[in-house]
Amino acid sequence: MPNSKRPTDTDPPAVPRWDRRDALALAVIAVVIAIPMRGLLRDHGAAMEEGFMLVFPEQVMSGRIPNKDFLHLYGPGSLWVLAGVYKVFGVSLATERWFGLVQHVGIITGLYWVIRRWGRSIAMIAALTAIFINLNSTGLSALAWNGAIAFGIWAVWALLRARESGDRRWLLVGSGVLVSLALLYRPDVILAVSLASLVALWPMRWRRLAPFLAGLGLAAVGYIVQVIMAGPGNAFRGMFTDPVFTLRMGRTLPMPPVWDHLVGYFQKAAVLRTVGWPFPHIGMSQQLYFWFFITILAPFVVIAVALRTRTRDDDPRRPAALLVLGVFGAGLLTQALQRADQTHLAWVGVITISSLPAAVAQFFTVRPIRRPAWEPWRAPVAASLGAVAFFAAVTPQFTIRAYNDAVLQSINRDVIGFPIQRNGRNFYVPSPSIATAAQELTDKLDGLGPRPGERLFVGPADLRYTPYTDAFFYYLFPELPPATYYIEMDPFDSGPETRLASDVNSADWVILTNVWNAWIEPNNSMKAGSNVPNEIIRRDFCKVGAWGLIPDYSGRSLPMYQLYRRCKPRRAL
Question: CA-CA distance, 569 to 510, in Å (whole number)?
């Protein structure tokens, strides 16, 4: 008869103890991470996203408050932590990227130890899958999402160990703290961590959950502090109203992805990767299409295997652990549904797809019903073949080729990151022409000797549209406070009901760019807003210079960057 007994406190642990073979597996994982590291450290960054992860924590260090002094769409936790890191190691691109690597390693090692229940080989395959899916999605940028997922997967590990262990108190406290940190980084992971916590803690009596609730109180304290500092209205608007209602329609993409062509700006930019791929594969739009469905279906496959095998495994803790892992991945799917591009699919797939090797091992190594038994060695082989097929044939452009790009850049071939520098600070952009123009503008503004405390505004050349921005200029000029609440310059920041016009009116210096003119997506990011900010610049600012040339849609050449300085007194709006 199937073994349906529940584990007791005297049962052996579901996870074997650490030994030298774990050290070898983790060493292999470390080598795979290290090989492209030099290239990733000097790869071009996301001008807005990585730019604001350099700027926002420094604003916090100077006493400015998220959602009161600048818009920040996520929880305050990542800014508080990065501000502390910058305080110790200094504000630099290198510091930010090394910390971003720590977040990636947190996800990868967390997956390894959760999936270790199915053996070292399966755990290593899952960890390597996570590397190729997520390491290159946004490079080493220390984005809040990766930090939240790292805390989330370690919370899953702690919850499972608390479920399996007789000494639960500190594991429950630790899991509650980890869930709190995940929520403080990204409140939108609440569905994932709630589902994982409920499923993991379900067998326990509620009166024994006090340690977990105590750890969970850290999130409540953190958000109370943020609400007090920013004010209830500002906090609610910045972390809920703006990201969920105001800005979402300016970032959405068709779901599922379009079959025969790419529609997202950064999807199209991925075509520019220089490394060839000699093996048969489908087109890029088809790659994205299949990747989307694999990402969405994967957690339900994991859940189905967990439920199917829950009464047939000699140790029922494994299907229980697989179920927790599956519901955690399912709770992350809203991120992939929100914007189905390669970055968001990687952010979700790093959990949902990387969990599939555990499902393979679980399905084929429990006592079979109506199928031949598999030898234990066959599960790692099947999982490996599935991973190879996924990376080599289904998604090579967004995964293995991106990894290869970083490897080649590490040995000074096919360089795709070009630096802009000022006073020991640097940032990398994707082309030498952009780097040259941005460097000339930076040198010009530096040579004009702006006084510390004068306000700098950075935005697109036509401020009726705000699809994207070069926020890294604020990082290069830390002595010039940002003149705008909208450092991110998200769509609809230019609407008549926003404060963008008054922000521009408060500036002393303005940097405008045409670099992002090619941003055309099937959403509201190209919806025209108020023209008042443009009128203020024409009325009260004088052009200092323009650098670089880039074509617009009609074939005209426009300047990549323009610098303006205030030449007329401010007027009331």
Answer: 15
d(CA 277, CA 392): 9
Q: Give the pLDDT confidence of 348-371 residue by residue, as tens digits.
A: 999 999 999 999 999 888 766 555
In order, the DSSP letters of 212-253 are HHHHHHHHHHHHHHHHHHH-HHHHHIIIIIIIIIISGGGT--
| Rounded (10°) CA dihedral 287, 399, 271, 147 | 110
Beta bridge partners of 428: 419
CB atoms within 10 A of CB 183: 26
- Please write down the HEC assignment for all residues of 537-551: HHHHEEEEEEEEEEE
Q: What is the C-alpha separation between 345 and 333, in angstroms, rounded?
A: 9
Q: Within the chain, what is the greatest distance between any pair of CA atoms?
A: 87
CA proximity to 379, closest of 114, 121, 26? 121
Q: For residue 558, which of 512, 509, 489 has the smallest C-alpha distance?
A: 512
Instruction: Report strand pairing: 509-513 vs 557-566.
Output: antiparallel
Query: Which tens digits make up the pLDDT trace of 94-143?
Result: 999 999 999 999 999 999 999 999 999 999 999 999 999 999 887 899 99
Residues 6+ apart with CB under 8 A from 561: 437, 438, 441, 511, 512, 513, 514, 515, 546, 547, 548
Beta-bridged to residue 564, according to DSSP, are: 510, 543
Whether omega for the bond prior to residue 256 falls within 30 degrees of 0, making it cis, is: yes
Domain ranges in the chain are: 20-407, 418-566
Q: pTM to 2 decimals? A: 0.93
Token pair belonging to 381: 């082989």
Query: What is the Rg, in whole angstroms, of the alpha carbon atoms belonging to the chain?
Result: 25
Find out whether 51 and 153 touch, Cβ atoms under 8 Å: no
Residues 129 and 395 sit within 8 Å (Cβ to Cβ): no
Q: What values do phi and psi take at 458, rounded to 5?
A: -125, 130
**Angular region, 570: left φ>0, alpha ψ -120 to 50, beta rest:** beta
Structure token pair of residue 346: 């990687």
